[in-house]
Amino acid sequence: MQPPSEHVHWAFATGFLVLGLCLLAEAIVGTEVWRRRRWRAYLWPGFAFGMGVLMWPVMVFFTNSTIHMLAHGSWAQALMLAGAAELGLVSGKLTSRWWYLCSAVGLAVAGIAFLIHEQNPWLFQRSSFLHHALGLTALVVAIFPLGKAFRPRALGWNAGFALGFVVIAVFLYSDRDLAPIFGHLSPLAGTPHR
Amino acid sequence: MNTQLATRLHARTHASARTWAVTLLGPLTTVGGLVWAFFQPWRLTLLHPHGQGFWWLAIEPPLLVMLVGLGFALLVAPGLIDDLQDEEDDAATL
Q1: Under 8 Å between Cβ of A129 and A185
Q2: Other beta carbons within 10 Å of A170
Q3: Distance in angstroms (rounded) separating the CA atoms of residues B50 and A11
Q4: What is the spatial distance between Cα A87 and Cα A80, in angstroms, rounded to a whole number?
Q5: Is B42 exposed, middle or buried (0-12, 13-18, 19+ CB in 10 A)?
Q6: pLDDT in tens, A125-179
Q7: Given B21, B64, B84, which is nearest A10 (Cβ)?
Q8: Chain A residue closest to B25 (CA)?
Q9: Cα dihedral sign for B78, A165, A73, A101?
C-alpha cells in the first residue's frame, strides 16, 4: 500500500502549489487584508508546517541511503522551521521581522541538501536534472524571504517568494522515478518501468 | 424607517486590478491543469483506469492542479475579494 516515490513527489508538488497560490494572493492583496480572517492568516504557515511533519515519514519509508535520508530530514526541519516562525509571527507571539529569515535559511539549507545529495550529473536521468534544478532554484528563491526581512511589505520580495514555490511545484510534478531528460538517459540508470 | 442611521451605499462600478488578479488566480490554475491534461492525457489514469493501482488513480497530477485551482477559487478567493473590496472602500472614504 506504500505509494511509489514519484507519487509522493507529486503530492508534495500539490502542497507547494497551494503554498504558492496563497503567498501570491497575499502578495497581491497585502498582508493586512490577507490576515483579516484568522483562519486565512494561519492557512499557509500551517500548511508549510504540516508538510514538514509529513516529510518525516517520507524520510523513514522512502530513503535508501544515509545521504538521501539526511537530505529528507533537512527538508522536514526546514519546512517546520519556516512554518513555525510564520505561525509565531501571525499569532503575535513573535514580533521581530527578522523571523522571516527562517524561511530564507530553510530554503538555503534545502537547496544545499538537494545539490549535495544528488550524486549524478545533470543529464543522468530526469530526477538527477530536477534535483540540480531544484537545489539551485531553492537557493535563488531564498533571496526573496531575505529581502522580505528588510522590507516586509515590498511586492517584489513577496511575489518572488510566492512564484518560487510555484516553480518548485512544477519541477516536482515533472519528477519520475526513472525517465529520460531532454532525450538523455544513462544506461546505468536502468530501464523505465512505465 | 430610521432616518437617524446612515448606511454606506455600495456603488462599485468596476473591480480593481488587485481584485481581478485574485479572481483569476484559481481559474488560471484550473485551466493550467486542463491544458496539461490535454497535452499529456496519459498522466490522467482516470481515462484508462483498467489495471491501475490505487495510487495511480488517487494521485493524478493534472487533476490535482485543477483541484487546487478550484479549491482556491471556491474557498479562499470569495472571502479575500470581499475583504479587499472593503479595504478599498475604506481607503476611498478616507
Answers
A1: no
A2: 18
A3: 22
A4: 10
A5: exposed
A6: 999 999 999 999 999 999 999 999 999 989 999 999 999 999 999 999 999 989 9
A7: B64
A8: A21
A9: negative
Cell numbers at A33, concatenated: 487584508
In B, which residues are within 8 Å of A18 by CB distance? 68, 71-72
In the structure grid, which three cell numbers stand for residue A138, read together? 531553492
**DSSP type of residue B51:** T
Amino acid at B73: A
CB contact under 8 A, A25 and B76: yes
Task: Calculate the CA A192 to chain-centre distance.
Answer: 26
pTM of the entire structure? 0.93
CA distance A151 to A184: 43
Residues pairing with A181 in the sheet: A184
Are A59 and A72 spatial neighbours (Cβ–Cβ below 8 Å)?
yes
The DSSP code for A189 is G
Q: Are A146 and A111 in contact (CB under 8 A)?
A: no
ipTM over cut 0.90: yes
Q: How many helices (H) and strands (E) does chain B have?
A: 4, 0
